[in-house]
Amino acid sequence: MAMAIAMALRRLSSSFDKPLRPALFKSTSLYYMSSLPDEAVYEKEKPGVTRLLTHKLLILLSSRKLDNGRGFELIPSENFTSVSVMQAVGSVMTNKYSEGYPGARYYGGNEYIDMAESLCQKRALEAFRLDPAKWGVNVQSLSGSPANFQVYTALLKPHDRIMALDLPHGGHLSHGYQTDTKKISAVSIFFETMPYRLNESTGYIDYDQLEKSATLFRPKLIVAGASAYARLYDYARIRKVCDKQKAILLADMAHISGLVAAGVIPSPFEYADVVTTTTHKSLRGPRGAMIFFRKGLKEVNKQGKEVFYDYEDKINQAVFPGLQGGPHNHTIAGLAVALKQATTLEYKAYQEQVLSNCSKFAQSLVEKGYELVSGGTENHLVLVNLKNKGIDGSRVEKVLESVHIAANKNTVPGDVSAMVPGGIRMGTPALTSRGFVEEDFAKVAHFFDASVKLAMKIKAETKGTKLKDFLVTMQSTHFQSEISKLRHEVSRLQMSFSTCWSWMDDRWHQLMDPVSRMRVLALLLPINPANLVRTRGEMETMMKNFMKSHQTLFNPTKSSNTNKNINYQHDGDGDGDGDGSTIPSLSPLAHSVLSRSAKILAVSVQELQRRFDAEHEADSQQLVKHTRIFLEFCCYQALHHVITNRSDYLSDKDFRRFTYDMMLAWDSPTLVLPVNDSPQNETSISSSEQQGEDEDGWSLFYSTTTSMAVQVDDTITVGREAFARIAPACPAVADVITVHNLFDSLTTSSDSRLHFLIYDKYLRSLDKIIRTAKNTQGPLISNLQLAEGEIILDVDGTVPIQPVLQHIGISAWPGRLTLTNHAIYFESLGVGLYDKAVIYDLASDMKQVIKPELTGPLGARLFDKAVMYKSTSVAEPVYFEFPEFKGNSRRDYWLDVCLEILHAHRFIQKNNFNETQQLEVLARAILGIFRCRAVREALCCFSSHYKTLLAFKLAESLPGGDMILETLSSRLALLNATPVSGSPRGKQQLRLSPVALLTLCQLGFTLQKEANLDVEVLAFGDLWAGETNPLEIAVKQSVSDTGKAEAAQATVDKVKVEGIDTNVAVMKELLFPVIESAGRLHHLASWEDPFKSMVFLVLSCCAILWGWTRYILPSIFVWCAVLMLVRSKKMPLEAFRVTAPPNKNAVERLLTLQEAITEVEGLIQTANIVLLKLRAILLAVLPQATERVALLLILVAAVLAFASLQHLILLVFLEAFTREMPYRKESSGRWLRRLREWWVRIPAAPVELIKQDDKKRK
């Protein structure tokens, strides 16, 4: 049987003896390859298996080849399998379906499949030196996690108990994991799991605590296995615990199975009941798994009967048909090859070298001052604790990755979050497979140390605390220089070891733009293995010659669709010469964009360049800038031609791709960009690289399908500046004022890099919104009786599950809410029909107020989901409620769009614009609302406040937003300017066109008299190549001020505390100087120390008599000014320390609140009584008291009239300060008592409370 399988695999693998030859010179993008050695296409007479590979797949495969050999692979769970294994995995064994087991298949024709699987089972038992009478094995499981779950379901019942090593302490998800609030692993959902942990002081498993926990938890199964434990398991100790609890011992040796097979570490088979393992880690096989299980005699019970293991049938049934279908026969074939290799002496020597390398690696790390969890290693991996270095594993992992060292962050004992782990896990199997020995791993430790030190330097200069802040700082020029230097050193070392792609280094990444580079590599690498042994110089020459001969391969993907008479495709030869372009070093993508622009304009690129040169002077010193300006010039011309000749351009996918290519070309206009001039040096990290951004928790899932697609999309993306320069050229797509906010909204899931997937989705959504708005006009115009030029912008309340409720008084009624560019309309829902619409005007100056408000049943203020409208045209405020189960996004959206229209009309009223200018302002607001709707519906996000997509709302909310409106007003004033003769650029400076209004007209919307406008002037638009729009300058200035305001507000939010007692404590501490000063004055006024009080009295009297009191306030102000100036030169202010009061529970906080309210109520009552008594005195309710007060007032008036102010102040001071003087204390007390008695005898003026009539609508 073994001979038959070997012959079959040899025949199946014969196609790998010769290279597969892609049809390089075919026009098609597909390569046709047969499994037969010399066939390139399928022929009917010669049956063969045909495979189709696209360009993109070749790019991915070639990229993975390059990635395997360009750096250090230190992830302990990864390895390089042999060519023989890959040949078996890539054989025709993958084409057969074989549900069932050998000899018992559901499908026919499985003779050789049965032989292959049986051979694999036999070799598995031989590799681990197991007796077939005592052990069986299932080789069909697809991976390690499913294998473990298959064992659980086979041997346990739902909610049976499992114990395993805790995930943060080195365990694995497939062993169960849950937090205090969420069950993360499916194992913890279907079974009850309890972790055992390491002794954090030693780093070893705490077997004593494990035994105690098992006694309390009484598990049915205990797992002995880990993914990040550098020591050997004490299987004998765990076996004793299992015997005591009558539990099953499952040994998961996924990481160490290769070491066990070689016999270089103790085997778990002597103690375990079931053993699972993956096959692709240290075992060096394909990606699969195996489940070993005991069989045969288990024990003889007390009655003398033999008890046998019953694991085999249960586990086999759990695998199939329980949890998976047919096996992957190609994987089983590859595993059979790997298991045969595992029995060789060379394999044992390899595993011994793995252990020796890991020991040397750990020793080198310790010598460099690194702390290893458990102090060292006894297997293939090390776990480095970075806490003593003051940095976490996430940041170090990013730096290692940037220098081509693949390691993975990992939790260490004491970590509180899996997303901010404190360690790095590294292993030696992969590099040992490449031939690394002990001295080489000493060098690897040096590179690791250099990377950690670099990460610490980056962290020290990072301003924020988030991982994304660290990544932004890492992109700075001086750090990129250090990273490049270290990456080059890593590359030099790895090139000394065997790999088919060791010639590739960073220099090749600089030869061309990323798109072209990837296409070249995808085509070059599969051509001929002989290329792989060429020198670097030979490869460079080959690549350049190949690029020169096949330039057309570098053009962007072309769509076969054409629309009307406008062609966005480039079908030239691509060499850059035939079209007359004389700009050197033009990138292929930029050249393609220029050629397509010229074709749209029906002119040559040479003619475009002639027009450009006539208006712009060449700048040889700044080639990239000059090229970008030329690119902008051509793009603006082409876009103008498109949007003025077509109304459906947004629905054309070629147009969407063309505009996106414009932005890509703007980002990379030349083949090689200077380091400090390339927008690619901005933050270009995909969202998958910022998985630690939210460092307070973790998520194992994507939030949306769009987010998932963006994170796996590895194509080139667009930066902020490119989007800001190109997108506003199409007024429907973006506005100069809000373009940066629009970019932020589109890149929320990709960290400031715009993917075509998102851009295309946004434009398709915008097109849908505009079409819906046009289709809505007809049916609603008759119901609403709209005025001329009034456009419906949005409608809500038409879906029963999302009603809109109008609250007036205590009544509420559902209906349909409609927003136009002049008013809000509400139609109450009657019996099957809508009532006549009520109009709430936004265009006239009626002192309208629109703001968020609380609403609820019968006028109760309960839910923050309403918008209030108030004006002089309505008797009482009207509330529109937008019910929804979670949040208030509907309300926020309607609040913003209503305010946008209101602000636009107020802007018009303030500046007294003429009709054309008014319509341009309203058109800008309308297009902004359409864009806001498109982003909201396409990406399910809505930005408000400083990030809003509405221009006038943004200007009202930004600090200094009035400058934006003033700039816009000055730009609108140019709409009436008289055109002059001269160059188009001179005309543009003196006359602008109403671009938003004309765009709206072109899209099919009708406003007042816009048909009379001069469409020709749109050629100049509101953008000019190479110049910054004044609106953009004003916005940037306001945004910079906004950053300061937001930073200040962040400090305010940070110091806000909850609880009355806590706030009182903070206030007392802040007012301590005032309170202390008042206390000292009170101490002096109480005459407890007569000497000090007398000195203070004499000095104060002298100051008053000599007129020094007028200098008191100026002196205080000068002293404060000097203190502030001196303080500004010193270190930043330290945190203000306040001793917090004891924590109180909810009941105590309620009691405190009640006491505070009672005290406030008492103060108000006392104040009211004082006022009522004063009223009684003034109105002579008690004549005797009134007469005395009148006489007193006359006396005081006489004193004020004849005495000087200085003497009055002195008199008041002496009276107040000497009241507690020993000579006056007794008489003062007697007079105060008489005064209080007199006050008590004064009656309060009468008060009658009248109940107000409820005039609210019912």
UniProtKB/TrEMBL annotation:
EC numbers: 2.1.2.1
EC supergroup of this enzyme: transferase
Cofactor entry: pyridoxal 5'-phosphate
Family: Belongs to the SHMT family.
Record Pfam families: DUF639, SHMT
Domain (Serine hydroxymethyltransferase-like): residue spans on this chain: 70-447
Region annotation Disordered: where it falls in the sequence: 554-582, 675-695
Membrane-spanning intervals of the chain: 1103-1126, 1189-1214
Catalytic activity: (6R)-5,10-methylene-5,6,7,8-tetrahydrofolate + glycine + H2O = (6S)-5,6,7,8-tetrahydrofolate + L-serine
Domain of life: Eukaryota
Feature: compositional bias, Polar residues: 554-568, 677-690
UniProt protein name: Serine hydroxymethyltransferase
Species annotation: Salix viminalis
